Amino acid sequence: MTEQSTEGTIFHSKRYTSWPSMTEDIDAGNLHAAFILAPLAMQMARQGKTKVKIVHLGHRDGTAIVVPTDSKVESFADLRGTRMAIPHRYANQRILVERMMAEYGFSEDDLKLIDYPPPEMPAALKAGAFESYIVGEPFAAKAEMDGFGRVLYHTKDIWPNFISCVLIVTQDLIDRDPALVQELVSGITASGKWLDEGDERLLSGLVMESASNQDDVDSGKVIVPDEFGRTPRLQAAVIAAQRRYYNQNPELLKFVLTKPPDRVKYTELELARDEFAEIQHWAEKLGFFDSRPVTEDDPFDFLDYCDPRFEQGRLRDLPLQDLASAAAEGAQ
Amino acid sequence: MSPRALLLGTVGFAIFILSWHLATLGNQIGDLPGPAMTVRGLVQIAGEGVLWENVVASVFRVAWGFCLAAGIGIPLGMAFGWYPRLRETFNPLVQSLRPISPIAWLPFAVILFGGIRMSSDLAAIFLLFLSAFFPIVTASTSAVASLDLKYIRSARNFGVDGLAFFRRVVLPASLPQILTGLRLALGIAWVVVVAAEMLGVESGLGYQVMDSRNALRMDFVSAAMVVIAAIGLMLDMAMARVEATALARRGMSRR
Amino acid sequence: MSQALKILLCFAAFLAGVTLLHGWLNLAWFEPSNREQLTVAHLPVT
């Protein structure tokens, strides 16, 4: 959201279409900050080709296991002997499934995991390519909104505060410009706090449709349809739906952000040692670090892949319009 | 093009569009898009300006990749054609690199051109260079190697030698085959640019296809496909035109 | 001017034109900015 403000650094959001092209760009030195799958981030840190550090989370939860609406599956145990699509081999979604398989006493053959591109998952579920899938939003909400899928579990029910993607920056950037990293992390913390706790004040650069005029259109202001609503989450849905961010249908993002509101969470984004220890434990167990196994002589610990110091910084203020002008707009 | 050919060509398109329309009747956005949905999608992305950025990005990469390949490939291929020793040394290498799809080079290209300005463009241009380079070298080599000996002998008898010999005899005689090679190479490069942009970069028509897929907008995917086809056709027609004029001037136009 | 030269010039003009257009549309070559910039990558999945 920082592109909305008029001062400070401009953070450009660059939308990739695959994880490898992102990691290759980081290794090539073209890219210094990214939201990336948590275990993939650890693996990059472990391989050490490019030194990267996790500095913050972008959100929590926001992942779901989806089954067809007419499916008889009522709990994870019913998935025995079926196929499930996962977004990536090194995704935390896979760790979640493996963790549940262990919990429910599944053997490796009891659930066949298939690597599948997330955007294709809803259609493939409908076509019967597999019996369930686990994915980050908005591709779970998509099946729900279109009516052919239902959520078996939200992550809040099976691994509360689930971590899907994390913010990594290169060590190079941390050394070169720690203030810039600080600005980025503080901005994300502030945006998250606003998303979960903010009031109906509009972000600067936004205008309600009924209060907008030709000048607003010409100056590129983001216009919020009145019937859409103006809570921070709905403002965010309108912003994120734009082409330069997610390029998604705003109604779908509205669904993701509000049905129910704790489907995705944007507070408590601080890095917690025990949560990463759990992810690392499973990553080791599943062989994510096989190219450089973790041993006593060659340890791998929280501070080898996380740098939580930027979370201590001063919280910054988001550029919000004051309520007076919002009320004036409402009266118009 | 004769009126009859034009008519028949139109009929071909009509049959295709009609069966496409019937097969996708009643589909929603997100399903397989029909022709009407595709046209609406096309109007929308063209209106938003996204399309033009992507078209320019793809054409830019192809133009550079192709020109570099032609600039290096033609002289190299002609040298291979003229000097058998050179050909025997390097042609097996060229022929064994040729069947590797340029897409396979993508990860290396990204790393090779990493950390500099426009690196993703350079990586894509490198792939396009590879895809066009091999057909051009091969065509130029065989064009010169298969020169009719009687041209060479009679030219020598008239005392034509050196640069004049190259310009007046070798070049004109090998031109038709080289031009065909260029046209073929441009076609391949266009196919490759779209594939390369699906994997490596964040602009271009291939990116448009992948990004629309991620955005669950299949109508934008098919709209991008229509644009890919149209531009591919235009590039080919332009090359055919160059080929025809160049040959007509030398009294070698075909049919 | 020979025809070969004309074709070459056409190619060169096309290359230059498409390069400038690409720089303008995709790389913001002609937009001065004195604010610091950083690109943050993501996929359209949470």
From TrEMBL, chain A:
Pfam families from the UniProt entry: NMT1_2
Q: Which UniProt keywords apply?
A: Cell inner membrane, Cell membrane, Membrane, Signal, Transport
InterPro entries attached to this UniProt entry: NrtA/CpmA_ABC-bd_dom (IPR044527)
What GO cellular component term, any one, is given? endomembrane system
- Where's it found, cell-wise? Endomembrane system; Periplasm
* Superkingdom of the source species: Bacteria
Query: Would you identify the family this protein belongs to, as annotated?
Result: Belongs to the bacterial solute-binding protein SsuA/TauA family.
Q: What is the official name of this protein in its record?
A: Bicarbonate-binding protein CmpA
> What high-level taxonomic lineage is stated for the organism?
Bacteria, Pseudomonadati, Planctomycetota, Planctomycetia, Planctomycetia incertae sedis
Q: Which gene encodes it?
A: cmpA
From TrEMBL, chain B:
Give the transmembrane ranges: 62-84, 96-116, 122-147, 181-200, 220-240
Q: Which InterPro entries match?
A: MetI-like, MetI-like_sf
Write out the GO cellular component annotations. Answer: plasma membrane
Q: How does it sit in the membrane?
A: Multi-pass membrane protein
**Do the record's keywords include Hydrolase?**
no
Q: Write down the superkingdom of origin.
A: Bacteria
Subcellular location as annotated: Cell membrane
GO BP annotations of the record are: alkanesulfonate transmembrane transport
The ABC transmembrane type-1 domain covers which part of the protein? Answer: 55-239
UniProt keyword annotations, A-Z: Cell membrane, Membrane, Transmembrane, Transmembrane helix, Transport
Kindly give the Pfam families that the UniProt entry links to this protein.
BPD_transp_1
Instruction: Name the protein family.
Output: Belongs to the binding-protein-dependent transport system permease family.
This one is known as Bicarbonate transport system permease protein CmpB
Automatic annotation (TrEMBL), chain C:
Name of the protein: Uncharacterized protein
Organism field: Engelhardtia mirabilis
The top of its lineage is: Bacteria, Pseudomonadati, Planctomycetota, Planctomycetia, Planctomycetia incertae sedis
